[in-house]
Specification:
Shape: globular
Keywords: Membrane, Transmembrane, Transmembrane helix
Oligomer: single chain
Structural class: mainly alpha
Radius of gyration: 21 Å
Order of helices and strands: HHHHHHHHHHHH
Distance between the termini: 35 Å
Membrane topology: Multi-pass membrane protein
Number of domains: 2
Family: Belongs to the peroxisomal membrane protein PXMP2/4 family.
Number of strands: 0
GO cellular component, one term: peroxisomal membrane
Number of helices: 12
Helix content: over 70%
Subcellular location: Membrane
Length: about 220
């Protein structure tokens, strides 16, 4: 029976192929003549996908191991209640939000940190804390990592030199990150509230077919 990583690579590769073909269709729709598939570009994009899937697969596992669990309905309900107009005006929402993330109660807040270090351990913190941390790292560290990997790998596959690849990293990082931040927060919210850890890379690939089209067009399919 194939491993979960193998299944994830296979599924993500199919989705990446679909996004690249759609990108080629979009790119050539205004050109005269029949559609011609750019096989080399398709293979380059699929190869890039195969190389980055294991990185993201183990990243998601490591992130879940460090910050396990999902926010509970009670935590979400309490957070929404804390965002009432009265609470916002009194800044009570800030204390409620911090307490929810840290997994503390009013009684626990009164205890000095030195007297009860165990309650600050990751395994004892709330599901909301886990969600916030995973969301934060997905938008920052993982985002930067994946953008650099995309620019580096896709251009190496095209035969660019090391110097040219570094120039492209500096040139392309900001516009790609800006585009990523327009869609990724929604995907991350779903990933870290309802999607099991071993399905997150495939889920992101499925949600990212449009993102894959963008990357394919950015790479000049």
């Amino acid at each position: 029976m194939p491993s979960q990583l193998t299944v994830t690579i296979a599924q993500s590769t199919v989705l990446n192929a679909i996004s690249n073909i759609l990108a080629q269709l979009i790119d050539q729709r205004n050109k005269s003549g029949p559609f011609t598939l750019n096989t080399l570009a398709l293979l380059q994009f699929m190869t890039y996908g195969i190389l980055v899937v294991p990185v993201n697969f183990y990243w998601q596992r490591a992130l879940e191991a460090r910050y396990p669990g999902f926010p509970s309905r009670a935590e979400i309900s309490n957070l929404w209640r804390s965002l009432s107009l009265k609470s916002l005006l009194s800044f009570a929402w800030l204390r409620s939000f911090v307490s929810s993330i840290l997994g503390t109660s009013k009684d626990e807040d009164a205890l000095p940190l030195q007297k009860d270090k165990e309650k600050w351990a990751p395994s004892r913190r709330s599901g909301l804390h886990s969600f916030v941390m995973k969301f934060f790292f997905d938008q920052t560290l993982a985002g930067a990592m994946n953008i650099v990997l995309f620019v580096v790998l896709i251009n190496f596959l095209k035969g660019e030199s090391v110097g040219r690849v570094w120039e492209l990293v500096l040139l392309d990082f900001r516009p790609i990150m800006n585009a990523r931040l327009k869609y990724r927060p929604v995907v991350s919210t779903l990933m870290y509230t309802v999607i099991p850890v071993d399905r997150r890379v495939v889920f992101a690939s499925a949600c990212g077919v449009i993102w894959g089209i963008y990357l394919s067009l950015y790479a000049v399919v």
